[in-house]
Amino acid sequence: MANPSPNDVSLLTAVELRDALAAGELSAREAAGHFLQEIESRNKKLGAFVTVTAHQALTDAEAADALHARLTREGRQGEIPALHGMPLAFKDLTDVAGVPTTHGSAALEHKPAPEDGALAATLKSQGAISLGKTQVPEFGLTAYSENRVAPPSRNPHALGRSSGGSSGGSAAAVAAGLVPFAPGTDGGGSIRIPAGACGLVGLKPGRGLVPSGVSAGDAAKLVVAGPLARTAEDAALLMDALVPRDQAPDGGYLANVGLAPEPLRIGVSLDSPWAGVFPFAIEPEAMDALTLGMKLLEEAGHTISEAEIRYDNRYPEAFTTAWTAGVGSARIAPQREALLTPLTRTFRRRAQQRSALKVSEALTFLRQFEHDTLAQYSEWDLILMPTLAQTPRPIGWFTGGGHSGEQWPSEWAGDADEDYKRQCEYAPWSSMVNVCGLPAISVPVHTTHNGLPMGIQLIGRPGSELLLLQVAAALGHNA
C-alpha cells in the first residue's frame, strides 16, 4: 500500500504495519503518533495503560526514522531493524529504563527503572518503540488486572468485564487497537488467560526458549515471555524478535506460519489438577468454544480423541507454595504492608511462615509432576481444552465487588481464599502447563450471543511453538 492514511493504520495487521514502516510508506513518528492519539482518546474508559511515555516514544521514533533514512541512503536496507518503528507496550512488571515499574502495588515506591529489563532490551534493540506500561495485578499474582495503583483493565468487548491477568492491560490494548501487538509474560496462565478473555492469539513458549534475564522470585522456573496478537501471523512476527536466531526454526516463525501441519493426533481433556480441591463447573459458552474448535480441527484433517489425564492431587498446595514464594521475599517497608491488597497480604504472610524445607519439597514435587504429566501427554501430538471454564468475569467479581458498582456477598469481600478459589475455577487448565515447561496457545474460535470472545487452548510437546502457531493460523483462516 502507498502512504497509509491514519484510518488505514488502525486496520493494518502488525505484519502489514511492519512492511509499511520498513518500506518507508509510513514513518515511525507517524505510527507512534497515531497510536498515542488512540491511547489518549480511549484509554480513560479502558484502563489498559498505567503510564504513557509519549515524549520518549516520539523521540525514539524520530531516531528510528533517522536511522532508516541513513541506511536507505547508503543502500543498506538489509540492516533496517526487524521491528523498525513498531509501537508496542510493556506490562508494568517489566523494567523499561527511565519509567517507574509499579508491579501493580501501592506498597512499593515507584522509582524510575535504571535500565531496561531483558524483555524490553531485546525488543527495543530490534527497533520497537515503547509507548508505555500496561495494567497488571499486584506482583502479577492474579487472573484479573485490578490493583490499588490505577483503574482496572477492562475488556474491550464489554467494559464491565475484566480483560484477565496478569497481562490484562497488554491484552486489552491489543484487542482495542491501541497497539498492534504486545509482549506478555506467563507464569501460570498470564498470557493465555487474557488472550482468551479478549479474543486474541496468545502463545506461551516453552521453558527457556525466550531469554528472560535473572528472576530470583521464580525458583520453579514458571515464567516465560511470549506474544499477544490479533492473528497467528502477528504473533509469529513477535516470536521472531523474541527468540534467538539459533533457537528459531529455519527461516523463522513468520516465514513458516502459513504452512499447513501434517495431520495431528489431538487429545481432548477437561481434567484439571485443581479439580480435587476446587471442583469447577464449565459454562456452556466454554463448551461451545471447545465443540467448535474440535469441528474446525477435524475439518483441517486432524484426529480428535478423548484424553483421560490423571493429575496428582498434591498439586494445588505445591503450586501455590511455589507461585507465592516470591511475594514472601519482596522488599516492602513494614509501614507500607497495609497498602497491599488482601490477597497479596495473605499469601505474603503465609509464604514468610513457610520453612525453606517446605518450599524445597514443593519444588521437588513439581518436577515429579512435570515428569508424570509429560509421560501422559506424550500419547498425543497436542492436548486440547477450553482456554477458560467461564466467560470473562465482571470487574470486581474475584474480590467481592467494588469497581463496577455490582456487589457480591459481603461475608467474603476481600477474602483471599475465596478470591484464589474463583481464579482457579475460572482458569483451571493454565498453571500446570507452566510447571511442565510446555508451549501452549490460546486461539479465539467463538463469540457468545452477547459478544464475548471464547477460545480454546492447545498444549504442545517441547519445541512445538511453530506447530502451535501453524494450527492457530489455520483455525483463524477457517473460522
What does this structure look like?
Strands 6-8-7-12-13-11-9-10 form an 8-stranded mixed beta sheet, with helices on both faces. 39% of the residues lie in helices and 14% in strands. It has 16 helices and 13 strands. It has a single domain (6-478), classed as Amidase signature (AS) domain (Amidase signature (AS) enzymes, Alpha-Beta Complex). Helix 5 (118-125) links the parallel strand 2 and strand 3 (129-134). The chain has 479 residues and is an alpha+beta fold.
H and E string: HHHEHEHEEEHEHEEHHEHEHHHEHHEEH
Average pLDDT level? 95
Helix content: 25-40%
DSSP, total strands: 13
The CATH homology group name: Amidase signature (AS) domain
> Structural class, judged by helices and strands?
alpha+beta
The separation of the N and C termini measures 26 Å
- Biggest pleated sheet: 8 strands, mixed
Which strand order spans the largest sheet, edge to edge or round the barrel? 6-8-7-12-13-11-9-10
Oligomer: single chain
CATH topology type: Amidase signature (AS) enzymes
Strand content: 5-15%
Count helical runs.
16
Would you state the CATH class?
A: Alpha Beta
Spans of at least 5 consecutive residues whose pLDDT stays below 50 are 402-412
* Count of structural domains: 1
Radius of gyration based on Cα positions: 21 Å
